[in-house]
Amino acid sequence: MDRGLHFMFGVIATMLLLRESSQTGATRNDDAVSKGTDSRGPGEGLPTLTVTTILEDPYVMVRSAELEGYCIDLLKALAAMLHFSYKVKVVSDGQYGAVSSNGNWTGMVGEILRQEADIAVAPLTVTSAREEVVSFTTPFLQTGIGILLRKDTASQEMSFFHFLAPFSKETWTGLLFAYVLTCFCLFLVARLSPCEWNEPKNEENHFTFLNSLWFGAGALALQGVTPRPKALSVRVIAAVWWLFTIALLAAYIANFTALLSSGSEQLPIQTFEDLVKQRKLEFGTLDGSSTFYFFKNSKNPIHQMIYEYMDKRRDHVLVKTYQEAVQRVMESNYAFIGESISQDLAAARHCNLIRAPEVIGARGFGIATTQASLWTKKLSIAVLKLRESGDLDYLRNKWWETSCLHKNRDRWSPLQPQALGGLFLTLAIGLALGVIAAVVELSNKSRHAAGHVKKSCCSVFTEEMCTRLRIKENTRQSQETSGRANA
Q: Which alpha helices (H) appear in 300-416, and where do they start and end?
């Protein structure tokens, strides 16, 4: 009896020891699996979600064998709010999700449909085609379609007559018309007013039409010129013209200063219409992306032209990855059409890149789940709470931080000669016209003098030219002789 009891106690003790040992081993194995994978979320009884994503800066990046980025931080915040663990996997084919030629979905959308992943947390655009096969949460990022350019290829070449740029052609035309009309009014009023021209038969009217033009031009340059008006009517016109020229010069100086300070920021490609009209840059987008299908399905004529251009040259202008697109923009004459928020990041990371102002096709990045998934509404509410608390804005500022803006503000560059080349050309033409006018006046005088002295016009002109040039030399010689005598 005693031996039987001892035997039973021994068997029970052995079984207890073996059970404790097996539980300890299982716990250690579970810890080892957790540490060796991308799973997150400690604790027992939590649901584990398989998350598919795509490597794209700054959403998901590999740093020191660990994944980090905007989407990883977002996933951590959602897991903390909804109490789930997760395992992250990078999409095998490197695609976002599109219908292939055989009718199957590729990329992250395809992995969700094949139940290889539960959710997709990535810069995945919410589209109607994708919404038909998977469900999306409330967008966590708002974006659109923009144009990414390199600054040196996108910068507007400075015109030789850059000094005329502050005013439009219509403004310059109106200014010329106002100038001629005002000078004609001065000429007319000066002849009609008896205070200006009392005795027309005996006095000379100084306000000829040419003198009136000279008077108006002097006012434009803020210089006082003769003749000086005497009559009240002429003075009223002159005062109004002076007020007009002061306001005009103030507007010109202000616009010219702003134009020079932002000279390098003037982009000839402001819109998608500008992109279609130019021939210097090639342009394309990601092959099979939502952007490509946006232009394909759009009824806008400009968008249709962009799609036809990309479709005809798809092997040359369409790129496979976003990194390839940015690299191509930096190294060649290429403009990339894609998500504006991703282009803002590229411009923040590479200071020689810039995004064109126009953004079309407002859209958002959402978390994709299987249809009728219980997680869709939970994740949508969690995203809304993160937005209301400002956490999404914090993540946006964290991963899109840049120093390029401060560098551009502090950078100073001297004014290029092309900006004022037209002014120098105008001055040269004016000087040449003045010399030519003087030669013509001298030739006219020589022609009249030749008729009186009965000599050839050329000989008289040569004598006059030599005489006028010798005056200065003779004066200088006389001054030097007088100086020596005084010494």
A: 301-312, 314-317, 322-331, 340-349, 375-388, 391-399, 404-410
Element (H, E) at 211: helix 209-220
What's the number of CA atoms in the CB half-sphere (13 Å) around residue 357?
9
CA distance 322 to 290: 13
Note the pLDDT of residue 202. 66
113 and 91 Cβ atoms separated by less than 8 Å: no
User: Which one, of 314, 178, 168, lies nearest residue 237 by Cα?
Assistant: 178
E-state strands within 37-115: 39-40, 48-53, 61-63, 66-68, 85-90
Q: Which residue has the higher pLDDT, 479 or 309?
A: 309
How is 389-442 classified by DSSP, letter by letter?
A: TTHHHHHHHHHS--SHHHHHHH---PPPHHHHHHHHHHHHHHHHHHHHHHHHHH
Output the pTM of the full model: 0.52
Classify strands 282-284 and 368-369 as parallel, antiparallel or unpaired.
unpaired
Q: Residue 85: which pLDDT band, with cuts at 50, 70 and 90? A: very high
Strand intervals (E) in 60-140? 61-63, 66-68, 85-90, 119-120, 135-136
CB 355 within 8 A of CB 144: no
CA–CA dist 320, 318 (Å, integer)? 7
Cα separation, 227 vs 244, in Å, equals: 20
Model pLDDT, residue 342? 85
**Tokens 């394909």, residue?**
296
* Residue 455: other Cβ atoms inside 10 A: 14
